[in-house]
Write a structure and sequence with these properties.
heterodimer, A: about 375 residues, alpha/beta, Rossmann fold, 2 domains, 8-stranded mixed sheet, B: about 270 residues, 8 strands
């Protein structure tokens, strides 16, 4: 471990990306994610990497995909309206299976909303923001050190499964400062995309084996292959053949479904004896942790289930928990987005309540405690 | 197919999907002649395209090829070129693709003077979607979305590129194929953002709605209406005519060069 430092969540994302091997960043200024762009503009310039401030969010997403196709580890960061604009090319990355990482530091929406205030209104957009069914992985850190660790993991997952991976922060997590001890470089596990083992003339760019993930050649290495956002066959060329279309789109889904057990991540705190389990992620989990302690002091048996990957959702873990006689409260800074997923997984076996707030402020422990008392 | 161009095509993907009389194939031939004439390494050359009829060209060419999203080809190409500057990067776009939805990316690629060679297939119409007017459809011409004639003013793409900072700006037509090949070669040799507009016929949509005759008539019109800048007298383009040839060339620092030089200088100075 390195010397402890005081660090901001956005800064930890930037540092995590560098530790993961980031060498290309394209971005556009937007609050509250701008620090990621500012920090990387300097660091990449210093370390031989590439930084470019593009003309808009659409272009920065496009440049990230272009760079990744040449073999770079590429990332962009944004918030609110910028995340909406990136959706077009996030879909392209999903369809063409181009590894990349998108940091979205959530603010209050819709539209320009509240530019400097936290919310968690992009949970569903992170999953379904681009048109069409598509695979995606979304991670939600709730501390500064987790911003660092999960950004590294985001790159590893993007490379391993050839998918866009979204780091879903909120303004609280992005801007808060905490003491962190970062692992030294040799302690960081790095996963790189699978390289083709076939000679260029035998390379079939979108054919995969048992793991459903094709190997990926970089542009400029003699493989001379075609990449398109149209539905394509294993050779990479557009097709409208219904059988190939179905099998291609199936594979895109399956490559995440197949690996869901190793992708999902969640944490449980004091759930062993809990009668009420609070479900929270990101900045909200901080208030929930405090509310939980306050409730315990009153003798209320309260625990927390914290999804760390929200897409795919840690379904099996929550199902196990729901086999016990517990009540759930999903606490979110939105009108109930992940709550829908919780309710689906629990499937009516347990009482599921909600605690929601969208006023530009982090939901307070007292507010959550009141809700705990109501449902206990 | 001529053996000297065959190596650059994915022969198994032909015949192409363009309509009879479409000029896009002629543009491709000139592009390949230029790439061949420049002696570019096929493994180190990448073709990036947007969405539309012209952008389907990428699929027929045997390079690393990237068929992107509508209007975004230059932004994807910026990522490729900036990440791997040794790749010769050609960007193929249609007029709607490049100047409407891609207009912002066009002016900023030109402003940066990033070393990309852009080709705009200008058929004055959105062909793939069936003939709607584009920012390059001349005023008063008809389209499926301008049944009574287009009231928009059209871009002068050459002036637009020049004004935005492109350092090589040229225009040819599918009638003037040797000139086109030469201009693409010169465009690629320019270290900076280069744009070549190619006037190409869309007989199926633009030609039909505007009663421009058969494909051969549309080609003939290109011959008759194009004025080579070298033969221009008094600098005045006659009414109804347009200029072809190398229209603008300038010296300016190239984006990636600037970035790499500045970063190297910082490291040499012992900065971080």
């Amino acid at each position: 471990m390195t010397t402890p430092r005081l660090m901001q969540g956005n800064e930890a994302c930037a540092e995590g990306a560098l530790a993961a091997g980031l060498n290309f960043y394209a971005g556009y200024p937007i609050t509250p994610s701008t620090e990621v762009t500012e920090i990387l503009s300097r660091k990449l310039f210093e370390n031989g990497g590439r930084f470019i401030q593009m003309e808009d969010e659409i272009a920065s997403m496009a440049a990230v995909i272009g760079a990744s196709l040449t073999g770079a580890k590429a990332m962009t960061a944004t918030s609110g309206p910028g995340f909406s604009l990136k959706q077009e090319n996030i879909g392209y990355a999903a369809m063409a299976e181009v590894p990349c990482v998108i940091v979205n530091v959530q603010r209050v929406g819709p539209s320009t909303g509240l530019a400097t205030a936290p919310a968690q209104g992009d949970v569903m957009q992170a999953r379904w923001g681009t048109h069409g069914d598509h695979p995606i992985i979304v991670l939600t850190p709730s501390s500064v050190s987790e911003c660092y660790q999960l950004t590294i993991r985001a790159f590893n997952l993007a490379e391993k499964y050839r998918v866009p991976v979204i780091m879903l922060l909120d303004e609280v997590v992005g801007h808060m400062r905490e003491r962190v001890e970062l692992p030294s470089a040799n302690q960081v596990e790095i996963i790189n995309r699978k390289q083709p083992d076939a000679a260029p003339h035998q390379y079939v760019p979108f054919r995969s084996g048992y793991d459903k993930v094709p190997s990926m050649a970089s542009f400029g290495e003699g493989y001379r292959y075609h990449v398109t956002g149209l539905v394509h066959d294993d050779d990479g060329f557009a097709t409208t053949n219904p059988e190939i279309v179905q099998s291609h789109l199936n594979r895109l889904q399956d490559k995440i479904l197949l690996h869901t057990p190793e992708i999902v991540d969640s944490e449980q705190v004091d759930t062993e004896d809990a009668e009420v389990v609070l479900i929270a992620y990101g900045g909200t989990a901080r208030s929930v942790t405090r509310a939980m302690r306050m409730a315990r002091e009153e003798g209320l048996k309260v625990g927390m289930f914290r999804p760390i990957s929200i897409w795919p959702f840690p379904e099996e873990q929550l199902k196990l928990l729901s086999q016990r006689n517990v009540k759930f409260i999903t606490v979110e800074m939105n009108f109930g987005q992940l709550a829908l997923e919780v309710e689906r997984v629990v499937g009516g076996k347990n009482a599921v309540y909600r605690a929601n707030q969208v006023n530009g402020e982090l939901i307070k422990p007292d507010t959550i405690l009141d809700r705990i008392r109501e449902v206990y | 197919m001529l053996p000297e161009v065959e190596q650059y095509f994915r022969i198994e993907k032909l015949p192409h999907m363009w309509c009879p009389g479409c000029g896009n194939g002629i543009v491709l031939h000139s592009l390949i002649n230029a790439i061949s004439g420049l002696g570019l390494d096929q493994d180190k050359t990448t073709i990036v395209s947007g969405i539309g009829c012209a952008s389907r060209a990428a699929g027929y060419l045997d390079f690393d090829t990237l068929h992107t999203t509508h209007g975004r080809a230059l932004a994807f190409a910026t990522g490729i070129k900036f990440s791997k500057p040794e790749l010769n990067t050609f960007v193929l776009m249609g007029d709607g693709d490049c100047t409407a939805i891609g207009g912002n990316h066009l002016i900023h690629a030109a402003r940066r003077n990033i070393n990309l060679t852009a080709l705009v297939f200008n058929n004055n119409i959105y062909g793939m979607t069936g003939g709607q007017y584009s920012p390059m459809t001349p005023n008063a011409k008809r389209a499926t979305t301008a049944f009574y004639g287009n009231i928009d003013r059209s871009f002068d793409l050459m002036e637009l590129a020049k004004g935005a900072g492109a350092t090589y700006v040229a225009r040819a037509t599918t009638y003037h194929t040797e000139l086109l090949t030469k201009l693409i070669m010169e465009a690629h040799k320019n270290k900076g953002f280069s744009l070549v507009e190619v006037v190409t016929a869309c007989p199926t949509a633009y030609g039909r709605y505007n009663k421009l005759g058969k494909p051969a008539d549309m080609l003939k019109a290109q011959k008759e209406n194009a004025v080579n800048i070298k033969s221009l007298k008094d600098g005045i383009v006659p009414e109804g005519k347009f200029l072809i040839g190398e229209l603008y060339r300038a010296e300016a620092p190239e984006y990636i060069d600037q970035y790499l030089q500045a970063a190297t200088k910082l490291r040499e100075k012992g900065g971080k």
